[in-house]
Amino acid sequence: MFQKIENKIVARIAPLGLAVGLALGGAGVADAASHGGSSAGPYLTDAEGKMVFTSFSECWKTVGGVATPVPECGDQVVVKEKAPVDSDDDGVVDGHDECPNTPKGVTVNAFGCPLDTDRDGVPDYMDKCPNSRLNARVNADGCEIVENITIQAVIDRLDFDSAELKPAMMSVLDDVAAELNASSGNEQVLVIGHTDSTGPEGYNQRLSERRAQVAADYLAGKGITNLSIKGMGESQPLADNGTREGRSANRRVEIVVK
Known about the structure:
By secondary structure, the chain is α+β, with helices and mostly antiparallel strands. Among the domains are: 2-70, no CATH class; 149-257, CATH 3.30.1330.60. Helices cover 24% and strands 11% of the residues. A hairpin with a 2-residue loop joins strand 1 and strand 2. The model is unreliable at 1-40 (pLDDT under 50).
């Protein structure tokens, strides 16, 4: 008991320039400072912001410019709070940022995501057509594109074994061409031809390609570019090929816009 008290007295009077407390199993002023600690505040802390204690659970407190072990700190620990990180520098800290890789300088919402004023799925900084109609189909540049169309005129369908355009179909193609020419979407247009199941499958495949080609040629004559064609033969019927009406419905041309 006497030895323990004696050691404590020695610890209190040992020169602070030496590694005080090392002999006692604690961290002294010199030891803490050499590991990045600080004695600038009222209590001595280590590099992690935790208080430095003697072997008697006392902390070092600066009193009159001199580090002195004091008992009143108990097991108190000082924790340095880390500054919040904002990796993409958009004003929203990473813990709340739903779009953590926003390009520098892009305006974001409260969740750290780029603004999309017209809600077309293309952020404003990439949107070449920022005022698209709500729910309109747009391309990667945010510009509206024409809707897909199936040309299947009820009273003026393609005749059996024919790729000749009829007046009602040409009227529909005129409307398609007008929309495409007025659009800023720079659409890719795929014209697809179909047949009913009458006749050999190979023949129907070629017939469907001819139907697609004649429709594409008509659109090209109206100034439409970026055209391609595809024949599906009898492989994708819309109606029952077992009836006359069903077969008539299956003879059609589709316009797919991308």
